[in-house]
Please model this.
Amino acid sequence: MIHPTAIIDKKAELDSSVEIAPNVVIGADVKIGANTFIGANVVVSGPIEIGCDNQIFPGAALGLAPQDLKYKGDQSSVKIGHRNIIREYVTINRATGEGEETVIGNDNLLMAYVHVAHNCILGDRIVIANSVALAGHVEIESKAVIGGMLGIHQFVKIGKMAMLGGMSRIDRDVPPYMLVEGNPSHVRSLNLVALKRNNFDNEEIFLLKKAYKILYKSGLTISQALKELEHLSDNEHIKHLTKFMESSVNDKNRRGLINGSK
Model:
């Protein structure tokens, strides 16, 4: 299962079912789980842990030092979960900061030339299209869809089931369940396609439509709108949307929220 041209450090820990294609380079402090495929010319540098059933396509570079001038050789790492598809020439850098991690969850699709910078945290079932660049400390919640050829500014957070249109400039937080597009970007609508694909019932969709109108069509300030949302419903999705937006507004480390469309 290991091609004779592959170079694998003796300290690397590979499950016996891992398949290694030609010209792969795997360093020390690398752990790779069962049934993972590593394509030709991939470089994997530790410390990194890669779970089971991942497909890593040719030319990817995983776990190398971050592109960050603050990095001074800190003992940091990358953790990648299970069943991810990591396409050609994806780069995933380890974190800046002693003991810090760059984290990729489960069942994600990262298309060709995606860059995941230091200290990024990605959830599960995310789709990131070709040539997307995530700056440092970006967080993406589960089931988001990121269109191709766009950039996400450092410290920005993307909410779950959000959709980002291709070639957009994402420089502030994107609330959950919203569709965002443009340069500069704006919230264009509720992401109804994602809600239906994830089996939201009619009542849940009605509540999120109402929340969208309060946030972006009522003329209220963001503080006033969030107070309205707190009284709208005990539904878990409304609570998550409200908590996400309150954190974006109140956390000094965040960059604030993407505006609604004019």
